[in-house]
Amino acid sequence: MSPSHAPSVPAADRARPAPLPFPFRAINAVGALGRSVGLPLARLDEQSILEAGIRLAGGLDDFGSGPFLEPLRRLSASLESEARLTFLGRNIARNSMVEATRNRLRLIADRKNHPEIARVTLAKPIVIVGGPRTGSTILQDLLACDPRSRAPLGWEAKEPSPPPDRASRESDPRIARCEAQFEGIDKMVPEFRKMHPLDARNAQECLVLTANSMVSGNYHAQFFVPSYYDHLERDCDWKGVLEFHRQQLQHLQWRWPGSHWVLKTGQHNLALDVLLDTYPDAGIVVTHRDPVKIATSFTSLSTLLRSMGSDHVDGRLVAADWCPRLAFMFDQAMRVRDSGRYPAERFYDMHFKDLVGNWRGVVERIYDQFGLELRGDAVDAMARFMDANRQGKHGKHAYTPEQYGIDVPTERARFRRYTDRYGIEAEP
Q1: What is the DSSP letter of 44?
Q2: Which of 45, 108, 201, 238 has the CB geometry, 3.0–4.6 Å to 64, for a possible disulfide?
Q3: Contact (Cβ atoms closer than 8 angstroms) between residue 133 and residue 263
Q4: What are the distances in angstroms from CA 186 to CA 217, 224, 304, 332?
Q5: Backbone angles phi, psi at 168, to 5 degrees
Q6: Can you tell me the distance from the alpha carbon of 404 to that of 321, in angstroms, rounded to the nearest whole number?
Q7: How many domains does the chain have?
Q8: Is there a domain that residue 239 lies in?
């Protein structure tokens, strides 16, 4: 099991992210001054979050069944006691939690008002469950280019109610609102687009949907909330979380059907058996890469994200926390696959180097593995997407293990079972 807190690192050796642009540092300075004279800060407690979400949802107050309140309490406590948030950080965290609360309330109300949503038969899902920084995002976007597929898009995952309609997929006002939020992130941390470009119209990963159960690994990527993430690893009610995830897919598919879903998040590795049981016809694509590259790249990403909300971010501590967590995640997934409960043909293993070297061959094998028809218009759309999104389009994402205190031999030993199991080669 992974630790709740990373070990200390000498101050002289710390890997600090670049400071935020001046306007955001100024806002934090003013906020700190206000706090010093007793002005109230953005509240992160359960009652305040619930009340704000209810107001945004127009007075709706039915949170439904399943996980929500317990993970909310854990996240709130972890943010207060561990994250060391700035003025902006508190507001970012609060807005995210309030938004998820509003979404949940509206989703449940929509389901009551339109009982036919519950009768939607979900299209077969293809679920990408590899680790972070393994090509999973580009693969999801690529597969989502198929005109007959269906993927949660950035704007509808951000604001899923009312149920999206295929007829207004280019004109829905939620698109502009989502783009404005993404532009704000670009201004705050311009380097982020090199690591993970955001586009309101591109496919979005499942952890944005599970956030509406207040369960999302994204919180620990963005804020230092180890106690909260311990809950996700150890005693989270994943059955309830994924049931609400399934209901959200019904909601999105109701007025906008497709031949199959294209879903993605590495978070599913924490409960791969629950995912497979929730979606018994799902095809699982597992993306693989040198785990030292995974850990270093993800550390770089998380360090940058945490700099948006805290002035106390140390990349070495980020690495020391995330490396064992990533290993635990891979071990959980291997345990499920080794259990014998699920046939091997439900899985397709994809290596990052194969996607980079021959994306079309990878796509063809995925379609063949899961009995899908790959038509010419889909291949053409995928080729256009790849031409428009070549690696390094927004600049090179540069990082080294040494930068974050990652000892390569130690990590190779930590991940040995994973690399041996899937024949993963070390990258230079």
Answers
A1: -
A2: 108
A3: no
A4: 21, 21, 12, 34
A5: -115, 25
A6: 11
A7: 1
A8: yes
Residue 89 covered by a domain: no
Distance CA 255, CA 347 (A): 30
Q: Which helix (H) or strand (E) holds 149?
A: strand 149-150
If you write DSSP's letter for every residue of 81-102 in order, what string do you get?
A: HHS-B-HHHHHHHHHHHHHHHH
**Cβ(209)–Cβ(251) under 8 Å?**
no
- Global pTM reads 0.94
DSSP codes, 302-362:
HHHHHHTTBS---HHHHHHHHHHHHHHHHHHHHHHHHTSSS-GGGEEEEEHHHHHH-HHHH
Residues 6+ apart with CB under 8 A from 159: 103, 174, 177, 178
44 touches 79 (CB < 8 A): yes
Listed in sequence order, the residues at least 6 apart from 49 whose beta carbon sits closer than 8 Å to its beta carbon are 43, 72, 76, 94, 97, 98, 101
Residue 200 is part of which domain span? 123-422
Asked, for residue 392, whether it belongs to a domain, the answer is yes
Beta bridge partners of 261: 125, 150
Residue 157 is assigned to a structural domain of this protein: yes
Per-residue pLDDT of the chain (428 residues; tens, 9 = 90+): 444 444 444 443 457 898 999 999 999 999 999 888 888 889 999 999 999 999 999 999 999 999 999 999 999 999 999 999 999 999 999 999 999 999 999 999 999 999 999 999 999 999 999 999 999 999 999 999 999 999 999 999 999 999 999 999 999 999 999 999 999 999 999 988 888 778 999 999 999 999 999 999 999 999 999 999 999 999 999 999 999 999 999 999 999 999 999 999 999 999 999 999 999 999 999 999 999 999 999 999 999 999 999 999 999 999 999 999 999 999 999 999 999 999 999 999 999 999 999 999 999 999 999 999 999 999 999 999 999 988 766 567 788 999 999 999 999 999 999 999 999 999 98
